[in-house]
Design goal:
- The complex is a heterodimer of chains A (about 260) and B (about 270).
- With about 260 residues, chain A is mostly helical.
- Chain A is built from eleven helices and no strands.
- In chain A, helix 2 runs antiparallel to helix 3.
- Chain A is globular.
- Chain B has a domain of about 120 residues: P-loop containing nucleotide triphosphate hydrolases (Rossmann fold, 3-Layer(aba) Sandwich).
- Chain B contains seven helices and ten strands.
- In chain B, helix 3 packs across helix 4 and helix 6 packs across helix 7.
- The radius of gyration of chain B is 19 Å and the shape is globular.
- The N terminus of chain B is likely disordered.
- The chains are: A mainly alpha (about 260), B alpha/beta (about 270).
- Chain A: Pfam families: ABC2_membrane (PF01061).
- Chain A: It is found in: Cell membrane.
Chain lengths: ~260, ~270
């Protein structure tokens, strides 16, 4: 910049590159502070998955083996769904309240905003997953061969994927009403095809092919790898990388939907 | 084009240059041309009122100036840079018509967050705290600092939104109908604050309103109608030129004149 300002009273931080750590953490802290004023949402987010697992355990009271496979899959699916819902509504509110426009008129990078959201909801997802995994393993007798840390890792990646999908979808919703309708549209097909109800290779080949390109399939596959094997298998690494890659890809797409100039 | 390119040589940004300079400025929203061939300047250190009926393009013009409006063509220089230039993001405070704050945060939490975006980092923590305290005091909300924004009245929420724009001592404040729905005492206090900001901080203010009696409080006026500038003058000069008692009468006089001129053009065609 060659120009100088004579009226500038305080040192001005230069507009920054794609990611600024201080702005990202400030954004994450702000999102968590908003949640802090809404304890009911936090309670629902943390407790509902636990209640569902508890319910499931006694639905399959007669066949603990079924609980093992479905329970492990659900440990990956819950964070995805919760984070999808929470993020799509939260970013939609940011868009409709005018705060997004205000932020983008300030020196906030799009990456700062998205990383801030991912950080805040990721933290929440860790707590949620830890509670659900702990409950399933130690109180409900979920029989997992591999390490619980790997379950937690997949759950976290799923949460990140949910955050990414929610952020992306919120760009296409004009109201909260529409945003909620995206849940069945985006999540349910994946839920049906991810191998939760029947192994994916038993499906009609056309459906199996579709399930091969849906990220949730790999989340469930990853969970099942941990369920059956004592150590980290090559398949597990592949599944985890695919989920993480999808999350990053969709986060990038989400960033592209944030525009500083709008009509 | 007004999207900035590093190759372009910007005019030097000196206090004598106008704060805003528009030349052949056009904005299209959808298929409608909202701003038509605008050509005006806004001087520094003064309060310029942007007046006109609702729907005449005031908000679109303000959005173009702060760089959030798409499909802007022509020249629009703000503080020596093309509008929307990244260097302007800390130098402009913008208040939208609807308050844009987080309803589920307290007033001080709202301001603390926006302050952290403008002036990030641990080193700046003290300065930020000072700025936040001052901005809350400026809009007279110190006693409510710990109240949730969502629990405030409409007028209080719009003052929180204004306080956010006052953070970081901006050189240009763009305020879209900041006094709508406020009681007379508060309106007077805010106008005193605006004059104080212009006088003591040397800031430039562009304030829109569709209430003509606020025009008398501005140093200069831009009168708009149907996407065009009808007049660009001081309130006194406007009244004298149109031989009117009030700015409102002057505005009506100018509208009649414009309509008559358009009609003659049509009949002579």
């Amino acid at each position: 910049m060659t120009t100088t300002t004579s009226t500038s009273p305080a040192p001005r931080p230069a507009p920054t590159g794609p990611l600024n750590l201080a702005r990202t953490t400030a954004t994450a802290a702000r999102v968590l502070r908003q949640l802090h004023h809404d304890p009911r949402s936090i309670a629902l987010m943390l407790l509902v998955p636990c209640v569902m697992l508890f319910l499931l355990r006694y639905v399959f009271d007669g066949s603990p083996h079924t609980f093992d496979s479905i329970g492990a899959s659900l440990l990956g699916i819950f964070p995805l769904i919760t984070m999808f819902l929470v993020t799509s509504i939260a970013t939609l509110r940011e868009r409709t309240s005018g705060t997004l426009e205000r932020l983008l008129a300030m020196p906030l990078g799009k990456g700062d905003l998205i990383a801030g959201y991912a950080l805040a909801f990721g933290t929440l997802a860790i707590i949620q997953s830890a509670l659900a995994t702990g409950l399933a393993l130690w109180f409900l007798g979920l029989d997992v061969t591999g390490s619980p840390w790997l379950l937690l890792l997949v759950a976290l990646l799923d949460a990140l994927l949910g955050t990414a999908l929610g952020l992306f979808v919120s760009a296409f919703a004009a109201s909260e009403f529409q945003a909620v309708q995206f849940m069945p549209a985006v999540i349910f097909p994946q839920l049906l095809l991810c191998g939760l109800f029947t192994p994916r290779d038993n499906m009609h080949p056309a459906l199996e092919a579709i399930s091969n390109v849906l990220p949730m399939s790999y989340a469930v596959d990853g969970m099942n790898e941990v369920l059956k094997h004592t150590d980290m298998t090559a398949n597990f690494v592949r599944d985890a990388l695919i989920v993480a890659g999808c999350a990053l890809l969709v986060l990038g797409l989400g960033a592209a939907t944030l525009r500083r100039r709008t009509a | 084009m007004m999207n900035y390119s590093p190759a372009r040589s910007d005019p030097p940004d000196t206090p004598r240059n106008p704060a805003i300079r528009a030349d052949a400025l056009n904005v299209i929203r959808g298929t409608r041309q909202v701003l038509r061939d605008l050509d005006f300047t806004v001087p520094r250190g003064q309060i310029t009122g942007l007046l006109g009926p609702s729907g005449c393009g005031k908000t679109t013009l303000m959005r173009a100036i702060v760089g959030t409006q798409a499909k802007v063509t022509g020249t629009l220089d703000v503080l020596g840079h093309p509008a929307g230039h990244p260097a302007l993001r800390t130098r402009i405070g913008y208040v939208t018509q609807a308050p844009s704050v987080y309803d589920d945060l307290t007033i001080s939490q709202n301001l603390a967050y926006f302050a952290a975006i403008l002036d990030p980092g641990h080193a700046a923590a003290d300065r930020r705290h000072e700025n936040v305290t001052r901005a809350i005091a400026d809009v007279d909300l110190t006693s409510h600092a710990d109240a949730l924004a969502g629990n405030l009245s409409g007028g209080q929420r719009s003052r929180v939104s204004l306080a956010v724009a006052l953070l970081g001592t901006p050189e240009l404040l763009v305020l879209d109908e900041p006094t709508v729905g406020l009681d007379p005492v508060l309106r007077r206090d805010l106008w005193n604050l605006f004059h104080d900001i212009a006088a003591s901080r040397g800031a430039t203010l562009l304030i829109s309103s569709h209430v003509m009696d606020e025009a008398e409080r501005c140093h200069r006026l831009l009168l708009m109608r149907e996407g065009r500038i009808l007049a660009d003058d001081t309130p006194d000069a406007l009244r004298t030129r149109t031989n009117s008692e009030t700015v409102e009468a002057a505005f009506l006089h100018l509208v009649d004149e414009a309509v008559a001129a358009a009609r003659t053009k049509e009949t002579t065609r």
